[in-house]
Specification:
By secondary structure, the chain is mainly alpha-helical. 80% of the residues lie in helices and 0% in strands.
Amino acid sequence: MISSVTSATTLVLEKTETEQLSPRILELREKIHNEEYLNNAIQRIAQVISKKLVENSEELKLRD
């Protein structure tokens, strides 16, 4: 079922006129196909989450 949804979504995206999309959307669309960009984005997200966990470690202990 997921593959058919993915195929339909891809089909819609392929048929979308690029003239109708903002330059920012086109830029982001390019970036998500760049493996280096994705790896850096994932790394940054992991760093932010790790920092938040370390900063709030005492608060998290109180919740247990």
